[in-house]
């Protein structure tokens, strides 16, 4: 890893206040990028990242966030879409309101941020978008109907955007993590009757016997965000400990 691999380049990381997004922000900063973190509580982000309060389900908020980044840094090269929310249950368990809310954040949120960023990305000589999908997009997992549908949509959106923007020089790829040890998963584990047994069962479901780490996901994101992957667009890279294999 080179400390100046992303020197002079500017990245937006949505959902960068927690979990995978925070690890991505840290990785890109360590490789020399200027990083703007878009999150619901972006103003409270500490450290070298530029925190911006953005709700990806609100177009005006997204537009204002991108404008703030351009005002501060004058350019934009990389967008990593990590903001996302979960949903449990079968199709019978999710209301129309649940569908609207989770689609709005997980799918339209990605499209909104990409659309707002696209004019600036077209100006970059090394533009890259990296979306976060999930093994849930390509593997049937119980109690994840709505969530899986949103991640399947992000997978398809990644391929479609890659095709649309290949001649603009904007590469679009995705990373598909397996169960990753983030505050999201830690909250899930904490909410069951026997958290220790739940964690052991979760580890046992992974072919590697353990959860994926946020840093492992961030490493794949950094590769897809960097010109080292200049010939890669429309790809979905699994970081799932062999779960989907
Ligand atoms: P997390 O809950 O730790 O972090 C998600 C971040 O997104 C939070 O900081 C939250 O405030 C932010 N966010 C939520 N709604 C937002 C909105 N409307 N506008 C702006 N920011 C918003 O979650 P984690 O685990 O780091 O997940 C990140 C991404 O990775 C998600 O897209 C998730 O679907 C995906 N993923 C996670 C896996 C896991 O096992 N943790 C596995 C596969 C995919």
How would you characterize the overall build of this protein?
This protein has one domain: NAD(P)-binding Rossmann-like Domain (Rossmann fold). 44% of the residues lie in helices and 15% in strands. It is built from seven helices and seven strands. Strands 3-2-1-4-5-6-7 form a seven-stranded parallel β-sheet, with helices on both faces. The relative contact order is 0.14. The structure holds 1,4-dihydronicotinamide adenine dinucleotide. The site of 1,4-dihydronicotinamide adenine dinucleotide has 29 residues, from helix 1, strand 2, helix 3 and helix 5. 1,4-dihydronicotinamide adenine dinucleotide binds next to helix 1, strand 2, helix 3 and helix 5.
SSE diagram, text form:
Elements: E1 10-14, H1 19-30, E2 34-39, E3 50-53, H2 59-73, E4 78-81, H3 96-123, E5 127-132, H4 145-165, E6 170-177, H5 183-190, H6 195-205, H7 214-225, E7 236-239
Bound molecules: 1,4-dihydronicotinamide adenine dinucleotide.
